[in-house]
Amino acid sequence: MKEEIFELEGFIFKLSYLEEEPEKQLLIELKGKGRHLTGSYFYDIHQPHNPTGEIHIHLYDKEKEILAINKISGTAHDRSHGIRIPNKAFKELQHRFNDWKWPNNQILESLNYTYILDSNSESYLRPVIVFNHKDFELNNINGFHGFFHLFADDPFLTGGDGGWKSRTVAIIENDIGKIFKVPVIAFQFLDSNI
């Protein structure tokens, strides 16, 4: 196999040729941020930022960071709470880093604030309707029916950067168990007459 590496407009390309049929076997791999994991996923491992921190891994889809997770506790890092690790990346991370603690359900939680969800959660959580809105990264979120967990008083849930005040964000679970941070103006309780 013959390989060439070159840079074009800030992107690094790796070309691999199988000598039998180079025109049919040309593989072009676009390098994303960090080291290649699998498919379009890349990762980078960082040392702790402070004496009580943990070694953690950042996962990218090409160059866009999608999550970060701590090694020992398996908790979310850098506000990755409630994010689900994509299947393909999760399997490869478990394989390569088998000494890390990985969440069985592939959903990142927090050591300080763990959601306890189960198949009967809707029987004791208030039903809500979430309207179409933009999330805190300005992505469009389609409306859905879900279940209210609590108002986000904890700094990591409200943004932690001083931009959001207490009780302006609610933690809402959709019907398949995904957790969302929803602005309070973007949902309504269904069990209320208001």
Task: Kindly describe this structure.
With 194 residues, this protein is mainly β. Among the domains are: 32-96, no CATH class; 121-189. It is built from 3 helices and 14 strands. The strands form 4 sheets. A 5-stranded antiparallel sheet has the order 13-12-11-8-14, with no helix packed on it. The chain has a 4-stranded antiparallel sheet with strand order 4-5-6-7. Strands 1-2-3 form a 3-stranded antiparallel sheet. The chain is globular.
Poorly predicted residue ranges: 20-30, 110-123
Mean pLDDT: 75
Distance between the termini: 69 Å
Structural class: mainly beta
Q: Sheet with the most strands? A: 5 strands, antiparallel
Instruction: Encode the helix/strand succession as letters.
Output: EEHEEEEEHEEEEHEEE
Number of DSSP helical runs:
3
Number of extended strands: 14
Q: Taking Cα atoms only, what radius of gyration do you get, to the nearest Å?
A: 21 Å
